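Quick one: sequence plus nicotinamide-adenine-dinucleotide SMILES, need structure tokens.
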Amino acid sequence: MNVLVIGGAGFIASNLVDALLQEGYNLAVIDNLSTGARRSLSSSVKFYNLNILDNTLERAFQEFRPQIVFHYAAQVDVQTSITNPSLDAEANIIGTLRVLQCCTDYGVRKLIYASTAAVYGTPKNLPLTEEHPNNPISFYGLSKLVPEKYIELFSEQYGLEYTILRFSNAYGIRQSSKGEGGVVSAFLSRLLRGENVVIYGDGNHSRDFIYVKDIVSANLQAITLGTNRVYNISCSRQTSINQLLETMCELTGRPFQPTYCPARTGDIVHSRMDNYKARHELGWEPKYSLEHGLEEMINYYFKNRSELQI
Ligand SMILES: NC(=O)c1ccc[n+]([C@@H]2O[C@H](COP(=O)([O-])OP(=O)(O)OC[C@H]3O[C@@H](n4cnc5c(N)ncnc54)[C@H](O)[C@@H]3O)[C@@H](O)[C@H]2O)c1
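Reply:
Sure thing.
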């Protein structure tokens, strides 16, 4: 089966590409390498270095003829979305529309879309279920939500199948400190260099962290299951930023001495997503506790320090 991963040189999707290769799929990746890196991909993967906003996108679909498309390409920095909402909307909304048009023009069977907890905005209650109202508080949250609506309408109008996966804060190897959830890699690169760690706010705000390998396994399930459905993909466990840093300090043997700076706009105070629907309908469950995932990630970077992105 031909599988196309758009944004496949990035953090989460390059881990997905590794798993898809192991499963034996015929793979191609599209990426403009704005935040991703070619070195994250095996040389055996067919690679199109292009921007999804360019006309060359269509040529890649015409040539490769994918049956399944994973759409991961996005502007992922919340702060950039606030300072430059047009750039953010162009990449995330117009970019997804271009992908959708190619999917319907070239007979793609299913699109799997990487969405986010940011589409919910400030939680009215926790844990967030998929039915929670969508009131994003950042332009990034909005520019990830609007494509969900386009995907649903494209499905209705043209029969394109889809699965929308809303991830909580991801962490794992190849993560940059800039994107969504980049707090783990930001902390780790500083801890491993013996530098001071900065926490925005008082550190009591919390997140629901999920290890990248658990995200990958949910994506693999979505190839055959969960058609025309939306799922939260999370551990459903709340961890404060102070607790996260304490655990990382224990695992790296570094002292807990953060510097606290003012909180940033667009940041939600507490988040935890309910993952019941994904467990029951995708037959998926997260296998990694935060401690287990962090330990694996930290051990990897102890051995491969030069790969840690800042
Ligand atoms: N990291 C998280 O915690 C998290 C949480 C929820 C959702 N997501 C979503 O998962 C997806 C991947 O996130 P990530 O953290 O791996 O980010 P990432 O920046 O590592 O990956 C994005 C990839 O898309 C590519 N890209 C960006 N714009 C492009 C364009 N116009 N044309 C072609 N390629 C382009 C980048 O070069 C990069 O390789 C995003 O859609 C993001 O919204 C991430």
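The chain has two domains: 2-170+209-233, 172-207+238-271+289-308. The first helix runs from residue 11 to 23.
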